[in-house]
Amino acid sequence: MSARSGSALTFGVAVALIGGVTLGNGGANVMPVFVDDFATRFALSDSTAGLVAATQLMATAVVTLLLAERAARPGRVRMARLGLAVSGVGFLGAATVTDPVGLVLANLVLGAGLGVVYAAATAALAATDDADKASAVTISGVVGVTALLIMGVPAANHDVGEGTGFLLMALCCVLAWPLLRRLPDGPSGPAAPDAGSAGPQGAASARPSVLLLVGTGLLWAVTQGAWSYASVLGRQHTSMSHSAVSAVLAVSSVVALVGAVVGPLSARHFGRMRSMAAFITAQALAMAVLIFTREPVVFTVAAVLWQACQLAVLVQMLAAAALIDPTGRLVASLGGAGALGTGVGPLAVGAILDSAGAGVLGLVLAVGTFAASLPLLRMTVAGGAVADEPQPGRVPTV
Fold it and tell me: Out of 202, 269, 276, 292, which residue is the most buried by the measure of CB atoms under 10 Å away?
């Protein structure tokens, strides 16, 4: 890896990155227990609960995309803290509202605030002197902290009172305020071109096809939709307690780190295409089993396998996109498409659960995963070709 200028990855910088990315993506990662809380508290149907979840996730996605350019400039700490303040107000509102309309508005506010935090924190990853190491440390820390939140939020709801989990998230925003002061800042003046800082000089940026963006959005709609209702399905189908289901989801999130390690190793040993296809197949099957099963043990195994395969797919997808387009434009485009899919997923899954039931949902999600994977597999093949025969100045078609 070539040397690059940037902030050293000190302990303080690592904590700031972990705190920012964890909270910025906290709405999506902790959504299963959020949905379980407000669906019970307001007696919401699956589709209505999905609408509330989609409101928050879409707000986060849209704000993140809108502020991506702003996050490349100086002032990230101030920007992230503004997001924390807005998020804190939203979490307080979600904890204290007494009607569904107020709940939707509160989730809209907190989702927008989280989007501000997420834009600043993810942009800061590129400002370190070792982006690979920074990403690995940040992702590992995010997984660990998220696992604690997945257990802590429902515990607060059931031990202290309904809605208390949102107060816990507001407290996290307060605690993160001083930690984010070490967030690496953007360069002064106009942002430098990606090709000059993240890849070879003169490298051409890839133009993602509409089909690739739709496939990416569909994959994350399927994944986030199923994840958002994992807690509800676990309790209803296996008769597991709130705490048991939360523990299973937390453990599956931590074990998913294995996928980040196994994915690249598998790609090197078996080839990108075969590795990606195998993990996508395993992910789709595990997701279907998690929805169909009535056995707690099978639910646990399926959750762990699903999350591990999902992370393996994500790592390989980003690696292929980076090989095709060293400027980072393709990676950013896929991230935006995935964020929008994440916002739509809970709403669609809730509607299917209400209208057709869990049996049909399992089939729809499995088929959706396979359909979404086709353009991504094509991109993976293109990434392998670029790695084998690099062609400077060529604009890849993906």
Answer: 276
Tokens of 242: 């709130």
Q: Facing residues of 128 across strands?
A: 7
Dist CA 301 CA 309 (whole Å): 12
| Phi, psi (rounded to 5 degrees) for 128 | -90, 165
pLDDT tens string 337-392: 777 887 788 778 888 888 888 888 888 888 889 899 889 888 877 765 555 554 44
Number of continuous H segments (helices) and E segments (strands) in the chain: 18, 0
CA proximity to 345, closest of 110, 114, 54, 112: 54
- Identify the CA nearest to 310 among candidates 281, 330, 339: 281
Nearest-CA neighbor of 222 among 347, 57, 357, 52? 347
Burial class for 209, CB neighbours closer than 10 Å (0-12, 13-18, 19+): middle
Altogether, the residues listed in the chain come to a count of: 398
Q: How far apart, in whole angstroms, are the C-alpha atoms of residue 84 and residue 171?
A: 10
**Tens digit of each residue's pLDDT (9 = 90 or more) over 150-190:** 889 988 888 888 888 899 999 999 999 999 999 887 655 44
Q: Is 75 left (phi over 0), alpha (psi -120 to 50) or beta?
A: left
DSSP code at position 199? S
CA 40, 41, 45, 50 dihedral sign is negative
Six-digit token string for 230:
């994992």
Task: Pull the structure tokens for residue 366.
Answer: 């499995």
Which of 254, 253, 282, 288 lies closest to 266 in space, CA to CA? 282
| CA 193 – CA 211 distance, rounded (Å) | 26
CA 325 – CA 320 distance, rounded (Å): 9
In angstroms, the Cα distances linking 144 to 22, 151, 254, 256, 281 are 9, 11, 6, 11, 26
